[in-house]
Amino acid sequence: MTSKILLQNKQSWNRVAHHFNGVDALPHYGPFAQKEDELNLFEDVKGKKVLDIGCGSGHSLRYMSNKEAAELWGVDLSETQLDAARQTLKNMKTHLYCGAMEEDVGLPVSYFDVVYSIYAIGWTTNLSETFKLISSYLKPGGYFIFSWDHPLYVHLKSNQGQIYLEGSYQDEGSVTYQRFKGEDAPMTIPKRKLSTYINELIKAGFTIDTVVESDVPSDLESMEEEISDKYYSLYKARKFPSTMIIKAKK
Ligand SMILES: C[S@@+](CC[C@H](N)C(=O)[O-])C[C@H]1O[C@@H](n2cnc3c(N)ncnc32)[C@H](O)[C@@H]1O
Question: Is the N end or the C end of the chain the one with fewer CB atoms within 10 Å?
């Protein structure tokens, strides 16, 4: 791993991993977004070989095991996250790799029926290489599903319920935060437009099947909420999608 950003993010993820045990995992696609039970994007995974990109604490892989997937594979940048995943998945046969999604870590090629990534893909420092690698892991006809913050969401700020745009959606690049989850854990997060995700999928040879701009899940529809300026809130999610979810076929 040669990239300074990857090395820095890896160290920081090791430090903040404990905040993410079981957070952002299937059947959830993201904060205040519909769940898989409502969207049914995965079809039937029984007997399928699945690969989780940025598998974190392993809770999405456990969901796949409960749905009787045949093989459980995962890759993550952080050893600490993978230690948590081994705990979550103890007694289950797994294949867990520590490495960056944008690098070839030796995963088998043309092998998987399903590759997915829940709230991790946006961390990649090289989206085109990541999508090319993911395409290579899939069998022809296999599919890839990922969720991430809706790319405009990071620009939506709220002041006493008045929502406004901060910064420029037009400018891609990356943002470095010196602290993450209240810890001394510098993280650099790339910033991309929705069209960049879609165009890079197409360039990697995928056919887009479904694009979801999330809405509040049905179980929260009738819930009363107060005005909130929090980064994620029901108040904001009723007005703008918190999460994008894309399903693409090889
Ligand atoms: C919010 S967590 C994902 C949660 C996880 N998908 C789940 O289902 O429980 C984001 C994960 O992405 C991982 N990550 C960040 N950058 C990465 C990279 N370049 N390659 C692989 N994993 C990365 C982090 O270590 C972290 O575990």
Answer: N
- CATH (domain of 24): 3.40.50.150
Distance of CA 160 to the CA centre of its chain: 29
145 beta partners: 116, 247
How many Å lie between the centroid of ligand 1 and the Cα of residue 202?
Answer: 23
* Residues 17-63: tens digit of each pLDDT: 999 888 889 999 999 999 999 999 999 999 999 999 999 999 999 99
- Distance between CA atoms of 61 and 120, rounded to whole angstroms? 14
Give the chain's domain count.
1
Cβ of 121 below 6 Å from ligand 1: no
Q: What are phi and psi of 163, to 5 degrees?
A: -95, 135
Residue 24 CA to ligand 1 center (angstroms) comes to 10
* φ, ψ (nearest 5 deg) of residue 72: -115, 115
